[in-house]
Design goal:
- The chain is α+β, with helices and mostly antiparallel strands.
- The protein is 25% helix and 19% strand.
- It is built from 8 helices and 13 strands.
- It has helices at residues 8-12, 49-54, 158-164, 175-178, 183-196, 209-218, 234-245, 259-269, and strands spanning 23-24, 27-28, 44-47, 61-64, 70-72, 77-82, 91-95, 101-105, 107-110, 117-118, 123-127, 143-149, 155-156.
- Strands 3, 4, 6, 7, 8, 10, 12 and 13 form an 8-stranded antiparallel sheet that branches. Strands 5-11-9 form a 3-stranded antiparallel sheet, with no helix packed on it.
- Strand 12 and strand 13 (155-156) form a beta hairpin.
- The protein starts with 7 loop residues before the first helix and ends in a 6-residue tail after the last helix.
- Pfam families: Peptidase_M23 (PF01551).
Length: 275
């Protein structure tokens, strides 16, 4: 056990203070709603913001994807579903706590009911866009259309917003300093696992079976050869320690997580690419 070890109960505990909206250059940033990210970064852009402007649209970004792809909330907020919203077809709107809204269009199916509170990464609908299909609006092929609306009601480019407000991603976890795992660390872990190891659950900082199964996949390259069953045991945690060893952990590989193990794991998770 590495020095200062903590119990499994403590491992699963840890809280994070709720974030607040901050101002960046006089503009309210989507800060700690909690968090904001591009949920479509793994898909090909089939229509740029400028493409939309060139054909008379108010703007948007199209991402090509198969009909029925799960669409996830770019940030926490409250859902409103609008069936057959003109050319946009079935449209889901997420109103964030600071007055910004994100909208996804051409859905084939709504998921949460109107008024449902969602966290970043929660499913909010299924993509559509097949020409002539219910909910597709004017779409001529499978894709999702994404844009944001600022508090004054102006449609804006979410990628420009992210570029102008780099702090709107996940915050760095303090676990790197204090060795105590908490919600921010687990959000970063879930985002890493979403990007690289097939995790499809919410980015909510509450690890469960799906998070742990993805974590087991994530440490396959670090000596873990057991089942991917979402049940973490010493062999699974030993894989995490081997990963942490590449990021400053120098303790034993004994499958018992303690502050030094968590610090090494957190250094790995605090890479900018997992924001």
């Amino acid at each position: 056990m590495d020095d200062g070890g903590i119990s499994r109960r403590t491992l699963l505990q840890g809280t994070v203070a709720a974030g607040v909206v901050t101002a960046v250059g006089g503009t309210a940033a989507l800060a700690a709603v909690p968090g904001f990210y591009n949920p479509f970064s793994g898909y090909r852009v089939t229509g740029t913001w400028q493409d939309h402007l060139n054909r008379g649209s108010l703007g948007g970004i199209d991402y090509g994807m198969a009909v029925g792809t799960t669409l996830r909330a770019a940030g926490g907020g409250t859902v409103t579903n609008t069936p057959n919203n003109g050319t946009g077809g079935h449209t889901v709107t997420i109103r964030h706590d600071n007055g910004y809204r994100t909208q996804y269009m051409h859905l084939s199916r709504f998921l949460p009911a109107n008024g449902t509170r969602v966290a970043m990464g929660d499913p909010v609908g299924l993509s559509g866009g097949a020409a002539g299909a219910p909910g597709s609006g004017s779409s001529t092929g499978p894709h999702v259309h994404w844009h944001m609306i600022n508090p004054s009601g102006t449609r804006i480019n979410p990628l420009t917003f992210l570029g102008s407000n780099p702090g709107t991603g996940l915050p760095k976890t303090s676990t790197e300093q204090d060795g105590v795992p908490g919600a921010v660390m687990w959000k970063r872990a879930q985002n890493w696992l979403r990007l690289e190891h097939g995790y499809t659950g919410p980015i909510d900082g509450v690890p469960g079976t799906n998070t742990y199964a993805a974590l087991q996949r994530g440490v396959r390259g670090h000596g873990y050869t057991g089942p991917v069953d979402g049940v973490m045991g010493p062999n699974s945690w030993a894989g995490v320690q081997r990963l942490a060893a590449g990021w400053g952990y120098t303790g034993p590989i004994d499958g018992v997580m303690g502050p030094n193990s968590w610090r090494g794991f957190a250094r790995f998770l605090n890479q900018d690419k997992y924001d």
